[in-house]
Amino acid sequence: MVSWLGFELRVALRFLREGRMQTLLIIVGVAAGVAVVAYISALISGLQGSTLTKTLGAQAHITLRSLDDAVTPARLADGTPALTETQPRVQRLRSVANWQALLPLLEQMDAIAAVSPMVSGSGLALRGEATQAIALMGVELDRYDRIVSLRSKVVSGTARLDPGEAILGRDLAADLGVRVGDRVTLQTTVGGRNVSDALRVTALVDLGVRDLNRRTVIVPLRAAQSLLGLPGGATVLDMTLKDVWTASELAAQLRQRYPYKVESWQENNAQLVSALNAQSVSTSLIRGVVMIVVVLGIASVLVVSVVQKRREIGILRAMGATRGQVLRIFLVQGAVVGALGSALGIVLAVALIWAFTHFVRGSDGLPLFSITLPLATALKVAGIATVCGVLAAIAPARRAAAMDPAQAIRI
Amino acid sequence: MSASDKLIELDNVRKSYNVGQPNEAEVLHGLDLNVRRGEFMALIGPSGSGKSTLLNIIGLLERMSVGRYLLQGEEVQALDDGGLTLRRRSTLGFVFQFHHLLPAFSAVENVTLPVLMAEGRVSSKHEQHARELLAAVGLSRAMDKRPSELSGGMQQRVAIARALVMNPALVLADEPTGNLDTASSDEVFALLRSIHAERGTSFIVVTHDPRLAARCDRTVELVDGRIARDEVAKHG
């Protein structure tokens, strides 16, 4: 039985070993390329992951609200619109109609991990002589925690939202001189009438954005409904998804299915999404260029090798090596150089990642963000580089296989 | 001569280079040549007479332009490159003037290369056979050495062992002693003769050396691409 590639592999390895310095240089070249590709992939993936976590950690993936109020132009008896010059209406605080019925329907959808109703509006926080404008959010704590991991953002106290309790943004508490356990008065205006409620602060949170920390007051859903004059209402349903990248698609589906204003995080963060996309495109370009350089490097070394080995190729052909066998000898060399270079490149990339994680720190002394090289990414990069090695070898291998043995021997 | 005795039959073989171009040149002009099994033939002639071209055609390394070539009764003109390669592997052995060993392989590995390319691996039986051949050509102590560690004569012996490893019907030797001193040249030629005597392998030896040609059973002389002389030696 003919052992598959036994001859080709043996001759290819000997040829590579014979041209030791040439082989070593090209393997190091491939390794450098693979290391750059793997390191950049890990770096960008870490950076984007960190940016997304920071951005989406404080907001829902999809929000559902009632449709905006719109002015309907007057129409004549035949239906023709008249007085089309209308002024946009002031948007009132309105509840999502039938939200109690909608909530279980949304929860049943496979793509949705959690749904949380919220009543949000503006108001004032008063303590002594201090007054601060606030963004008031009424939530059910357990549900809301699944949207923004509120409990993990607590910097002081214990997150609890029993009746009469509130959670404040860290900077707002500092502005008001409030500590955990103190009472704070919240005041809103409903229909021209002031409504106020005094609540005990159970926890202070850091939401990651100073502006949010300076304005956020989180209270039980019922307390916010009373303060904002929306008994039994919810102004928004926040949703978290199992896969953040399905948000746009799912939001479009929900818009088609229900008469509500549904927005995905991508729509709310269009600039961020554009930046991430631009970053991904740039990374792909860099990876592509590096891989082309790797291919050209391997190809040039093998072209030289074919010229150097003309006589050996001639002897092998005279002894009965088929054109296919000669072709495969050089393809195997490409694959071996690609595979060894990839293995070394992945080790280099891991070393670079280690160096980044240990030596590059933010102003607070902590790592900027975490970078890891997942096994799947490493295998993918190594696989692509090995395939590139084989592709790079095609032209030199064809040249070797096409060589006229009689002429090659004469050299 | 019975059909089964015939190893090679060349009929009106012509070979031209640069066909259709202004510098077109015919180097073989209608050769007829038969070689029997077990013959030890010298192919002589001045430089440029077409010896190497004829050897390459017989060795299936080059195709003739016109004519008919039967190798062991089989017409080879119609064979594609793969067919020629397989016939070359199974029927022919080559010994070149400059030894042409693969420098990255040891002596015994060079000898087993044709087996490796035919079967993808070298069994212990084949390796044993290769070692026996190397011992037979007087290289018992140099089997695992690289070509660079061997003298010219020793390298040529390795090349002879390699040409014999697949038990070919015909060995084609192009100036096998052309690069050796007189003593080594005599040794190598004596070795070829003893292999011929022991194994009955046919040999076509291209040589410039009239001394060696005289020790062959048959001498064919080419002059300007034509057979000028074809005679059987009296000792043969």
Short description:
Helix content of chain A is 54%, strand content 19%. Chain A contains 14 helices and twelve strands.
Give an overview of the whole structure.
- The complex is a heterodimer of chains A (411) and B (236).
- Chain A is an alpha+beta fold and 411 residues long.
- Chain A folds into two domains: 188 residues, no CATH class; 171 residues, no CATH class.
- Helix content of chain A is 54%, strand content 19%.
- Chain A is built from 14 helices and twelve strands.
- In chain A, strand 4 and strand 5 form a beta hairpin.
- Chain A is elongated and about 105 Å long.
- The two termini of chain A are 35 Å apart.
- With 236 residues, chain B is α/β, with parallel strands linked by helices.
- In chain B, the strands form two sheets. Chain B has a six-stranded mixed beta sheet. In chain B, strands 2-1-4-5 form a four-stranded antiparallel beta sheet, with helices on one face.
- Chain B is globular and about 50 Å long.
- At the A-B interface, helix 1, helix 11, helix 12 and helix 14 of A face helix 2 and helix 3 of B.
Q: What's the pLDDT, averaged over the residues of chain A?
A: 89
The secondary-structure class of chain A comes to alpha+beta
Main sheet characteristics of chain B: 6 strands, mixed
- What is the count of DSSP helices of chain B, taking H or I runs of 4+ residues? 7
The CATH topology of chain B comes to Rossmann fold
Strand order in space, largest sheet of chain B: 6-7-8-3-9-10
